[in-house]
Design a protein that fits this description.
three-stranded antiparallel sheet, elongated, alpha+beta, 117 residues, Arc Repressor Mutant, subunit A
């Protein structure tokens, strides 16, 4: 079972709504990928830029961005545009879930996702 906890401050609403939730099978597909788990761990630990996520998760930048896009499409990560001191714009990624658990038991798969309001 995977279990993560985070209490993020809400910066921007996610694209998903309460009626647009992931099924247990979709969550297992998403987190069945080692790189996705590593990328999610990185943003669940603290908000990061894509470059910082790649470094923290020890994956290539393209891999990090693909997984971040998948997590964002699933409503588990959100982005916020930040402006650096040099004037460049950069996306910052953060987990929007307050808790996520997946388990496999005799009765099948089960999942629970709580999203911050």
């Amino acid at each position: 079972m995977f279990a993560y906890s985070k209490t993020p401050s809400l910066k921007r609403p996610t694209d998903r709504t309460e009626n647009n939730t992931l099924t247990t099978a979709e969550l297992f597909d998403l987190f069945g990928d080692e790189y996705t788990r590593r990328v999610y761990d990185a943003v669940a630990e603290q908000p990061r830029s894509g470059r910082d996520v790649a470094e923290a998760a020890d994956v290539s930048r393209p891999t990090a961005y693909r997984r971040l896009n998948d997590l964002r499409d699933a409503g588990l990560v959100r982005t916020e545009m930040t402006i650096c001191e040099d004037g460049h714009h950069r996306d910052r990624f953060e987990a929007v879930t307050t808790s996520l658990s997946l388990s496999l038991g005799e009765d099948g798969m089960d999942s629970m996702v709580s999203v911050a309001d």
